[in-house]
Amino acid sequence: MADLRKPRICVIGAGPCGMSFLYHNSKYQQAGETCLEVVCYEKQSDWGGLWNYTWRTGLDQYGEPCHGSMYRDLWSNGPKECLEFPDYTFEDHFGKVIPSYPPRSVLFDYLQGRWSKANVRDPIRFNKLVKHVTYNNDTDDFTVTVKDLGCDKVLPSERFSHIIVAGGHFSVPNVPDFDGIGTFNGRILHSHDFRKAEEFKGQRLLIVGSSYSAEDLAMQCRKSGSGDVICCWRTKPMGFKWPKGIEERPLLTKIDGKTIYFKDGTTADVDVIILCTGYLYHFPYLSESLRLKTSLRLYPAGLYKGTLWMGDGNSKLMYIGMQDQYYTFTMFDIQAEWACAVIRRKVKLPNRQEMELDIKKWLKEESLLKNCYDHIDFQTAFVCDLAKEVGCKYNLDVKALFDRWEDDKYADVVTYRDQAFTSVFTKSPGIKHHTPWMEAFDDSIDTFVNQTPNK
Ligand code: FAD
Ligand code: NA7
Asked: How far, in Å, CA of 84 to CA of 90, rounded?
């Protein structure tokens, strides 16, 4: 049984969220606070979560569902100044100012720089899949069962006083069915399995969905020479001023051969269907009473401060990064810092009734939001509230940058990634990339970073 006087913490996942927890735990230790035992189980063979790119799709080398949803051509879909860590800026990492929309490899390098500097790899057990987590009412702790994927062996169960769920929620595709889809004479894939835009050169595409993946895959595929792209929407169109070759239509109603029928009575022939229909919250490893069940939203119900599970577990199970995300790395980081502070009793939890009331207040505010600018305001308030709780010395509010990003996208979805932003932490003026995004095909760190600033 875990010694409850001394927390023993299990972190599930070594993606940005789990790593932020390890980072803040190590900060406490560096500051001379008690050293708590933390074990982080990661089913992949390296850290980084989605940022640890894989070419694989379907099942991984161990026969487990492949976690990766990122594609090779991915470039940041928001300015890096919106996700920059105040205590480890991009300038700290690269030693110079770099443009605002880096490719995937540059962002991953930045993340790894912070983790390596803090030396937080030690607690991670790689190739270890968390299979079951249950809460023990009688002993007020958790039993965790883990499989060593390399040895194909379930290890003896372990007991922990706290659980940090940081397994991500953009890995299990939501795959709807459409009339006639089974007879479609072409390729069908979900964005989870999309890896390389070049593959679709010359192909006519139907993209289902009207959110980030739909927008980005439409643009990526056109950039790489695809044929015409039709994006179709269920609730509302994305509404950008699309470049030639991309259009939006209402949702499809049926498919016959290669012909797609849409709600507005139009038809089109396509070669490929890409389902950009989002992801499921899927935590099969958590027992029912510990399992967050939600759709993608800014404030998943049942989490105090968007983090602490109000169901079973006696306030000792926390989820990080489960929100819909405008803020990413800095939001995960402040949630992780808050979780550390709760475990170390630096932040005192109010009684249950007050926690419920706090959740209700946020849910009410969430229900009143009308557009993306409101969403950004809401998440800014969420991040700043946590920052206040932990006494964070930095101002994490980058709402003005997010608002400008949205304006840029609506002004021109082709050129928004060519804009330059100023870091709120270093105040160094932003610089433009040497090549417009639409013409930039070399996404290596070297090419992106080692360029002459255009000042
Ligand atoms: P993940 O990155 O998913 O990491 C979770 C980790 O948990 C993984 O390593 C996984 O292997 C591990 N894990 C899961 N279950 C288990 C288990 N049972 N046992 C052991 N280990 C387990 N964000 C941005 O800021 N900028 C972007 O440009 C951007 N682009 C994106 C593009 C795509 C296609 C997607 C899907 C997301 C994008 N994101 C982007 C958002 C992304 O969600 C976050 O940046 C970040 O990766 C979330 O971190 P996480 O730790 O919550 O989850
Ligand atoms: P999202 O943001 O969850 O969007 C999913 C989209 O799929 C959204 O437009 C949905 O329409 C649409 N959808 C879902 N189910 C259906 C069905 N049955 N029929 C038609 N359309 C459907 O997922 P993304 O992959 O775009 O983004 C996830 C993350 O990846 C994001 O945070 C980025 O960082 C990258 P709705 O609007 O609900 O009608």
From this structure: 7
